[in-house]
């Protein structure tokens, strides 16, 4: 039976919608990439981006575009947020799966989901008016790498905890029966069987969370202090790539503007690679099930 | 779940205590954030605040125009993302005859889901505002957000469609139903829960978004005169008051509370709908 005219028209229309949706990411890469070309080429050029000592894009006499401190800010804030988020998130998932009574299990999941739904600008605002003053009394100036890391850790913890919880749930019950038959206690079963078996799922959640942390803008820009420098301690202000884009794009021109687009392009590549890597990892090793 | 152990050993209890402590930190942290926001926000929150115009850069007055702009941005976003996303999902699930094409499109959508919001902002600024000539406008902001929530809408619709019984399609074909009628009368009703959940999750993502809107829909605080006018969303309002307006903290706190309450409600609704309709197969709102 050949398809009717109606079917062909509908199929074509839906196909156009599908290709449009799939093509948007390509549009983004092209449009952002084209704007970034001058920065990588000669205005100011890669040697300047990597070689200049400072980030002084607005200087009239001799603008400098050393973006290494900015990239370092992005990496540091991601590392310092992912460590506490992983410890607390996995701990939370273990408690929820293996220790909590049933009602608390659901309650905890609901709270994590609500926490995940708090918008970044609101968490950033909370960090600015509550967290930063506390840090300021203890370790001035308050707006710092530490503040940004804490705020980010709060934001990404639900991602880690919820994916870890799902991964632990998917551990096959046969393994638990085998562990019980061997006389393993609860802690040994969790540490020796459940967590190793679920490690791929947990690692996937951690990488997703890290990708989110490095791409987060609003929460970070409000608490990180926004000084483009190599931080001497975690209580020094920093300025990650996202914050730099958000703060400077409104007035940047020519080469400076192109550098900001290069930063954005770089972010897409890093985050896309991380997420793509999770999606296309090889299937798990056979001994898993 | 873990069998056997009638009595917990010391190690078992230690691990439980460590995990319980982590859970307690999360609960207390969440409680503290919500409590702080309530405490700082309720002072300025009132009906006149919700409907009044923005005065003195946001220090005084209300957030009426901001709420209207937010609603208009959301309207543009949904008007584009819903038909496009649903159409894409139906094509992927029902029409894509070549697996290569379906894979390419799915990869594109996955990549789209991973793009950081500030990059959406830059893309919207050069593509919608400049290349398409829409300028800093509510339309540009809404279209940028539409790109952002498309992956959510597509994924949830696909999950909804995958719930259709597998004998539905050959059954319809045996009755001589055209594909259009099959989709309209059999598959769409099955997919509607997915679309509804996707819409709710999309709204919550769009409402929470700030970075993508700063460079697309702009900062204007007047009552928006049309979709081609600039208008600031509530999240941008919070950011601007907190960062750039000395003395704006009180009204920023009240706006943050409004946004937080709206989102908690919408997210709760989404979880409820997802649990009931989609048999818990939708990923939690982690973005």
Count of runs of 4 or more consecutive helical residues of chain A: 12
Radius of gyration of chain A: 23 Å
Strand percentage of chain B lies at under 5%
What is the assigned CATH homologous superfamily of chain A?
A: MetI-like
Oligomer: heterodimer
The largest chain-to-chain contact, stated as pair and per-chain residue counts, equals: A-B, 106 and 98 residues
Q: Could you tell me the CATH topology label of chain A.
A: MetI-like fold
Side-by-side strand order of the widest sheet of chain A: 1-2
Instruction: Give the domain tally of chain A.
Output: 1
Assign the CATH class of chain B: Mainly Alpha
Helix content of chain B: over 70%
Overall geometric form of chain A: globular
Return the structural class of chain B: mainly alpha
Number of strands of chain A: 2
Major sheet attributes of chain B: 2 strands, antiparallel
Total E-strand runs of chain B: 2
The CATH architecture of chain A can be named as Orthogonal Bundle
CATH class of chain A: Mainly Alpha
Low-confidence stretches of chain A: none
Please, how many helices of chain B? 11
Residue share in helix of chain A:
over 70%
Note down, in words, how this protein is organized.
The complex is a heterodimer of chains A (289) and B (287). Chain A has one domain: MetI-like (MetI-like fold), CATH 1.10.3720. Helix content of chain A is 73%, strand content 1%. Chain A contains twelve helices and two strands; from the N terminus they run H-H-E-E-H-H-H-H-H-H-H-H-H-H. Chain A has helices spanning 5-41, 46-51, 68-98, 102-117, 120-138, 145-169, 173-181, 186-197, 199-215, 218-223, 241-248, 254-279, and strands spanning 55-56, 64-65. Chain A has a two-stranded antiparallel ribbon. In chain A, strand 1 and strand 2 form a beta hairpin. In chain A, helix 3 (68-98) packs antiparallel against helix 9. The model of chain A has no long low-confidence stretch (mean pLDDT 89). Chain B is mainly α. Chain B has a single domain, classed as MetI-like fold. Chain B has helices at 10-41, 47-51, 64-95, 99-114, 117-131, 138-162, 168-174, 179-208, 211-214, 234-244, 249-277, and strands spanning 54-55, 60-61. In chain B, helix 6 (138-162) crosses helix 8 (179-208). The relative contact order of chain B is 0.15. Residues 280-287 of chain B have low confidence and may be disordered. At the A-B interface, helix 1, helix 3, helix 4, helix 5 and helix 6 of A face helix 1, helix 3, helix 4, helix 5 and helix 6 of B.
């Amino acid at each position: 039976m050949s398809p009717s005219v109606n079917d062909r028209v509908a199929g074509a229309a839906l196909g156009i919608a599908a290709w449009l949706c799939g093509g948007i990411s390509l549009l983004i890469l092209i449009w952002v990439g084209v704007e970034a070309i001058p920065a990588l080429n000669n205005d100011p050029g890669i040697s300047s981006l990597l070689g200049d000592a400072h980030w002084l894009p607005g200087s009239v006499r001799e603008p400098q575009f050393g973006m290494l401190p900015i990239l370092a800010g992005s990496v540091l804030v991601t590392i310092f947020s992912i460590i506490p988020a992983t410890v607390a998130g996995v701990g939370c998932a273990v408690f929820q799966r293996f220790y909590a009574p049933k009602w608390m299990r659901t309650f905890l999941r609901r709270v994590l989901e609500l926490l995940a739904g708090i918008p970044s600008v609101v968490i950033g605002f909370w960090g600015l008016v509550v967290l930063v003053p506390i840090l300021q009394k203890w370790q001035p100036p308050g707006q710092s790498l530490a503040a940004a890391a804490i705020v980010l850790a709060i934001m990404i913890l639900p991602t880690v905890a919820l994916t870890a919880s799902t991964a632990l749930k998917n551990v096959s019950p046969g393994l638990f029966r085998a562990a019980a038959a061997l006389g393993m206690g609860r802690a040994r079963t969790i540490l020796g069987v459940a967590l190793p078996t679920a490690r791929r799922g947990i690692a996937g959640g951690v990488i997703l969370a890290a990708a989110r942390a490095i791409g987060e803008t609003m929460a970070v820009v409000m608490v990180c202090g926004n000084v483009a420098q190599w931080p001497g301690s975690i209580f020094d202000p920093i300025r990650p790539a996202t914050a730099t884009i958000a703060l400077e794009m409104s007035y940047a021109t020519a080469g400076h503007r192109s550098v900001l687009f290069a930063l954005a392009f770089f972010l897409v590549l890093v985050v896309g690679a991380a997420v793509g890597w999770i999606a296309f990892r090889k299937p798990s090793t056979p001994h898993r099930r | 779940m873990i069998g056997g152990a009638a009595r917990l050993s010391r190690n078992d209890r230690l691990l439980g205590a460590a995990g319980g402590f982590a859970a307690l930190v999360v609960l207390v942290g969440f409680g503290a954030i919500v409590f702080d926001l309530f405490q700082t926000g309720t002072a300025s929150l009132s009906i006149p605040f919700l409907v009044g115009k923005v005065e003195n850069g946001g220090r005084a007055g209300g957030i009426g125009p901001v709420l209207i702009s937010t609603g208009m941005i959301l309207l543009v976003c949904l008007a584009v993302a819903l038909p496009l996303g649903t159409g894409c999902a139906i094509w992927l699930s029902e029409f894509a005859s070549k697996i290569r094409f379906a894979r390419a499109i799915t990869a594109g959508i996955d990549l789209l889901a991973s793009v950081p919001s500030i990059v959406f902002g830059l893309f919207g600024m050069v593509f919608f505002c400049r290349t398409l000539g829409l300028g800093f406008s509510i339309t540009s902001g809404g279209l940028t957000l539409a790109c952002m929530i498309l992956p959510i809408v597509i994924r949830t619709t696909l999950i909804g469609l995958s719930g259709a019984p597998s004998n539905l399609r050959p059954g319809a074909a045996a009755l001589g139903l055209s594909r259009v009628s099959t989709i309209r009368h059999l598959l769409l009703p099955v997919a509607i829960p997915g679309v509804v959940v996707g819409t709710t999750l999309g709204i919550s993502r769009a409402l929470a978004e700030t970075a993508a809107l700063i460079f697309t829909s702009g900062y204007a605080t007047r009552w928006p005169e049309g979709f081609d006018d600039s208008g600031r969303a509530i999240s941008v309002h919070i950011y601007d008051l907190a960062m750039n307006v000395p003395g704006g903290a009180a009204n920023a706190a009240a706006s943050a509370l409004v946004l937080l309450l709206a989102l908690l409600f919408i997210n709760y609704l989404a979880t409820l709908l997802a649990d009931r309709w989609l048999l818990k197969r939708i990923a939690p709102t982690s973005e």
